Amino acid sequence: SITYNSYLYSMMTWLSEHFNLDTKKIIGIDDITDTKTIWRCLAAELIGTLLLVLVGTGSCTGVQLTSGDVVVRIALTFGFIIATMVQCIGHVSGCHINPAVTCGLLVTGHISILKAVFYIIVQCVGAIAGSAIVKVMTPEAARGNLCMTSLGANVEPMQGFLV
Q1: What is the distance between the alpha carbons of residues 33 and 114, in angstroms, rounded to a whole number?
Q2: According to a count of CB atoms within 10 Å of the terminal CB, is the N or C end of the chain lower?
Q3: If we measure between CA atoms, which residue out of 114, 118, 109 comes closest to residue 28?
Q4: Which residues contact 119 (CB under 8 A, 6 or more apart)?
Q5: Using one digit for the tens of pLDDT, what is the confidence trace for 3-19?
Q6: Average pLDDT, the chain
C-alpha cells in the first residue's frame, strides 16, 4: 500500500510538473468541502433529471407512432423541458441533467472528478425516480412498453445496434 501510494504521488507530481496540472483542482476536494454549494448543486441535478424523465417520457407514454405529428410533439416536449431546466437550474449546477453530459465535461476538464461522480449518482437517482413516477401515474392499460426504445418494423437487431 505504501509503495502504491508513493507511486501514485510521484506520478501525479510528474503529471503536474510536465503538463501544468493542478491535481487538487482535477480531483475536486474543494468542490465537495463547500457543503452548502454542493448540496444545492446535487439537489438541482436530481430535480432537473427527475423532471426531464418525468415530462419527457410522460409525453410519449401510450403513444402510437403512426404520424409525424406525434414525433414532433414528443421532440418539442423534450426541447421545452430542457430549455426550462436550463433557465431554472443552469445558474445553480450547470444543468447537466444527463450523466453523458457530465462525463463529457469531466473528460474535457470542465468539472472535477469528485463532483462528476456525485452528479452522476444523483442524476441516476433522479432518472429512476422520474421513471417510477411515470409508471405510477400511467394507467395499466396505457403502459404498453412504457416509452421503451424499440426497433422499427424492418430493422434487424444488428442494424439497430450499429445505428
Answers
A1: 11
A2: N
A3: 114
A4: 41, 42, 45, 93, 96, 99, 102, 111
A5: 666 776 776 666 666 66
A6: 84
* Window from 27-36, 54-63, 90-99, 123-132 with minimum mean pLDDT: 27-36
Q: What is the largest CA-CA distance in the chain?
A: 64
What distance in Å separates the CA atoms of residue 49 and residue 43, rounded to the nearest whole number?
10
CA distance 98 to 11: 32
- Which residue has 434487424 as its cell numbers? 156
Confidence (pLDDT) at 33: 76
For the chain, the structural domain boundaries read 24-144
Instruction: Return the pLDDT at 97.
Output: 95
- CATH dotted code for 24-144: 1.20.1080.10
For the segment 51-71, the average pLDDT, to the nearest whole number, is: 82
CA distances from 95 to 12, 23, 62, 112 (A): 30, 25, 28, 15
Closest CA to 59 of 82, 30, 31, 92: 82
